[in-house]
Amino acid sequence: MNSPAHDIQGLAARRAALRLLDAVLRRGETLDQAGPAATAGLLTSSDQALARAIAGEALRWLADLDALIDSATRQRLADDAKARTVLRIMLAQWLRLDTPPHAVVATALPLLTGGPRRLAHGVFGTLVRGEAKLPTAPTLPPGVAERWGERALAIATGLAAPPPLDLTLRDPATTAEWCERLGGVSLAPGHVRLARGDQVSALAGFEEGAWWVQDLAASLPTRLLGAGEGRRVLDLCAAPGGKTLQLAAAGWQVTALDASDRRLGRLRTNLARTGLAAEVVVADALEWQSAAPFEAILLDAPCTATGTARRHPDVLHRIGPRQIAEMADLQARLLERAAGWLAPGGRLVYAVCSLEADEGEAQVGKVELAPDPILPAELPDWLAPTPAGWLRTDPGMLADQGGMDGFFIARFRA
């Protein structure tokens, strides 16, 4: 006798993955937003992680999974058909997570009944027997590929797998020591890269606050402000706080401002863990008033975050012209506000983790400050500024070493 569906081991994680995909593709939610409701009831963190991994790989390779499904059906399934979504998670498990086909069938088909169940079983069986394969790089959605232009193919290569784990060190002088202790590699002073999979809090140096998790590209804007030497710096839109920690470690007197008290909680925890200090302010940057100017300002502005597609593949499917325009308008207002708080001769670094030109290159002409071009000597030797003196990174860079997030960075002087 077959076991009832609720007794099938692993079924709950697949049902949660189905909910995650529905939340992203139908309601436009992020994976992070959808996670708590979609994984409610899952008893173990490993089941929650599995659901997130299945949904993430399905989103990363969505166009290619759909092409395989379409190749094995006589009549095209609707984009929002439940059978198509279940087939997406079946194929993602088999082709990306190395789940044996029999386990895929046992844990996914109970999500369907009747004709759709027979259809999904038949399509999956056809593809398994035909030894279906995915391309070496994900196919980007058409609108995304058009926006990213000539770098789209290289960027897609960098999106083929989730990223490794990057750490930023409290003391860059200890880079070699921590590379050896953690078994990692360094791509810049104060940086260590590790393979995925280890529990962060169990790694050497966590308890003593020797480092924090931060993508390599995300560490670059702060590096361009140099040593603080006790001067005042404003970190605008600071949460979750990696750049605040960098600034404090570099000797700046930091005011970290963000509108979200909840997101600033992580910064407060990391400040206590690392022994670093910063003034933490909960406020809307568009309404807050500063009593005195700052020698430096870092504005890592709210953005569409398309540069983080390696770890957040939902952005490939949620972000379009409307969201880009909304973010670009907010960024322009924040830049205008920040420029008014800069002391004479002070520096402002503007950064977004976005691959969209409207949020990067198009913003620099709106700033009423003098450009302060980034110099090659300020960057790792594998990275160079643009001819205009800005910096653009993307996931296609260092793709054979794990890649990096996409950022646009510009610097100005009052």
Q: What would you say about this model in short?
A:
The protein is of the alpha/beta class and 414 residues long. The chain is built from 15 helices and 11 strands.
3D architecture notes:
The protein has 414 residues and is of the alpha/beta class. The chain has two domains: 5-129, Orthogonal Bundle (N-utilizing Substance Protein B Homolog, Chain A), CATH 1.10.940; 215-413, Rossmann fold, CATH 3.40.50.150. The protein has helices spanning 11-27, 31-38, 45-60, 62-71, 82-96, 101-108, 114-129, 142-148, 152-158, 175-182, 220-223, 242-249, 261-274, 315-318, 321-339, and strands spanning 165-169, 191-194, 211-213, 232-236, 253-258, 279-282, 294-300, 342-352, 370-371, 391-393, 407-413. The strands form two sheets. Strands 4, 5, 6, 7, 8, 9, 10 and 11 form an eight-stranded mixed sheet that branches. Strands 2-1-3 form a three-stranded antiparallel sheet, with helices on both faces. Strand 5, helix 13 (261-274) and strand 6 (279-282) form a beta-alpha-beta unit. Helix 4 (62-71) packs across helix 5. The chain is globular, with a radius of gyration of 23 Å.
Keywords summarizing the entry:
3-stranded antiparallel beta sheet; globular; about 425 residues; 8-stranded mixed beta sheet; single chain; N-utilizing Substance Protein B Homolog, Chain A; 11 strands; Rossmann fold
